[in-house]
């Protein structure tokens, strides 16, 4: 049996690190990383190539060095960066990855998209993959990720390369430098009594280990001899924990797990009022050249229903979330506490 040689682009990021760990845990011996961030891997057997996806030669060089047959592309610009930068990284960078794979004989490519590619700022209940792309998109990040995904899907089957796109929602877990630290910081600062919106909006979260598992399942099923190849190649899949909950239930789960008491009385700021406050803080931030404490995007994020139907992933990828939100919260908070001590 011929095994793949894996190149994880963005392998030093949150998702990338967990994908690398799971590949090694299941016994894969040919795993490499390409990342703009210079970070030594936990396993010294994993070669790390420093490179930028906006430079196609960096990608080609890494593919050639590790003789990759499967590329998992998790690298992206973070939301909030200038539009031109996001287009350069998310769109042009992804085109470079696809073209480098095609020119160097890579057979499989799994792309990390986002569930927000179909989001237009309105409530979405149990949305599936038949939903159109957002029109308009709520920000540059979602729009550029959608443009990149379209190119990945359109490239399936060309030059011997087979592609698929995964759309995780609300990822969190160990090594998370954004969601978990931010939410735990709210409890630390004594602001956990504040609630934006009525908390009737359901939201999907995804434990990072479950998201990583989905990427491995997708990569396996892109093999031509796999019985589910035709169900995966050229397709996009929503990936979540399959357990949507009212938005504020999740941070409160983290706080409770971390030993913080949940306030008996909550100060509820209606969505419209929070939006007005956010406009003011954004103006102050712009004038002072400082990052605003509250933005209209964060209000939209907290107050809108967004949850997905993962039936397609369950069927085609045989995806089933192994780690529940409760277990994921416990693992994440344990990691966060240890990180606080270092």
Question: What would the CATH topology of the domain at 6-173 and 204-244 and 307-322 be?
Answer: Rossmann fold
Helix content: 40-55%
Counting DSSP H or I runs of 4 or more residues, the number of helices is 12
Structural class call reads alpha/beta
Distance between the termini: 44 Å
Overall pLDDT confidence? 95
**CATH architectural label of the domain at 6-173 and 204-244 and 307-322:** 3-Layer(aba) Sandwich
Largest sheet: 7 strands, parallel
Q: Tell me the name of the CATH homologous superfamily of the domain at 6-173 and 204-244 and 307-322.
A: NAD(P)-binding Rossmann-like Domain
What is the ordering of alpha helices and beta strands?
Answer: EHEEHEHEEHEEHEEEHHEEHEHHEHH
* Percent range for β-strand residues: 15-25%
Explain how this protein is built.
- By secondary structure, the chain is an alpha/beta fold.
- It has a domain at 6-173 and 204-244 and 307-322: NAD(P)-binding Rossmann-like Domain (Rossmann fold), CATH 3.40.50.
- It is built from twelve helices and 15 strands.
- The chain has helices at residues 14-25, 56-66, 83-103, 140-154, 179-188, 208-221, 229-232, 249-257, 271-288, 296-303, 311-316, 325-341; strands at residues 6-9, 31-35, 48-50, 70-73, 108-112, 124-127, 162-168, 171-172, 194-196, 202-203, 206-207, 236-239, 245-246, 267-269, 306-308.
- The strands form five sheets. The chain has a seven-stranded parallel sheet with strand order 3-2-1-4-5-7-12, sandwiched between helices. The protein has a two-stranded parallel sheet with strand order 6-15.
- α3 (83-103) links the parallel β4 and β5 (108-112).
